[in-house]
Amino acid sequence: MSEAQKHEAVLLLAHGTPDVLGEMADYLKLVTGGRALPQEVVEELQHRYAEIGLKEVPGEEAPPLTKWTLTQGFLLEQALNGSVDPPAPDADARRTKVYVGMRNWHPLIKDVVAEMRADGVTRFKAVCLAPQNSRTSVGLYRKAVTEAAEGMEMEFVAGWAESPTLAAAFAERLWPVWAQACAETGRRVPVLFTAHSVPCRTISTGTASIAGARPGTPMQETPDPYPVEAKRTAIMVAERLKAVGMKETDWYFAFQSQGISGGPWIGPTVEDTFKGLKEQGEVGVVMQPVGFLCDHVEILYDIDIAFREMAEDIGLQLWRAESLNDSPLLVQALEEVVTGRFLAMVDERGAA
Known about the structure:
Blueprint: H1 3-6, E1 8-14, H2 24-31, H3 39-51, H4 64-80, H5 91-94, E2 97-102, H6 109-118, E3 123-128, H7 135-148, E4 153-159, H8 164-185, E5 191-196, H9 200-203, H10 226-240, E6 251-256, H11 270-279, E7 284-289, H12 297-300, H13 302-314, E8 317-320, H14 328-339, E9 345-346, E10 350-351
Parallel strand pairs: 1-2, 1-3, 3-4, 5-6, 5-7, 7-8
Antiparallel strand pairs: 4-9, 4-10
């Protein structure tokens, strides 16, 4: 086994989230590329995070996004090394280590890549824990890793939205709650798949796509693939449930969590979809966010609190599929991406 093979590693990339409420302003500056947001926006986000348990001092465990992302990294490392016999003399040399780096908070990507260098890693595979490729957000992940990993050999996975095992993981979580909702109401309850909305300017083509965009946003000659890839994941999940009776008329798609400051964001929105479902006589809706791989504020607050309140106000009952979190099928999907058993969208391998 060559020295290069001995030092293979995986770097999982995630958004990041503050550890305490007092870090919110600094965290948001990283999200916006250094642009300070109005104080009322900071306070509103502090309120939302407080509603899901973030406090002024660190809790007994990390915030949900950090907790589950680190858990996913741990489980992936176990899966990748399942065939390695620990007692073997060179077991450590043959193990593939999985690192986790956050773009907007600790552990920051640059710090984790520095740790990888110190560990002797010379080549690695980077995987975004956002399976649908958005050139803006994924592009910023790529930029952060490339700058930190100068001189290292990197293979960057830009998208894996059409992983059959990922679709199976979502379907496994959706089926029980959809069956429950239909049983409780005595009728077919519609399913609403969602993904995080993005600013309209980030998916447009030409110079308008970068007007006012965050630093590092490239010129785009073709539309961003993100909206299509997000809907494709939803289609694949629904296809998985055909075996238990799901029809094309049973589900809808919307973009959630539009920004609270500045410019139009892509839709349709969850709010408008709720109103449309009520107008056509529905009594409830089952939500499954397919653009998120674990619990965090966009699920625990936006869906479980804000959307639930809105649904109640207009007379809809709301159910939500459990997040993937530590799903064995999610771990399997990641393993398939890393090992190449699923041919994900990757950048050509080369020096960073």
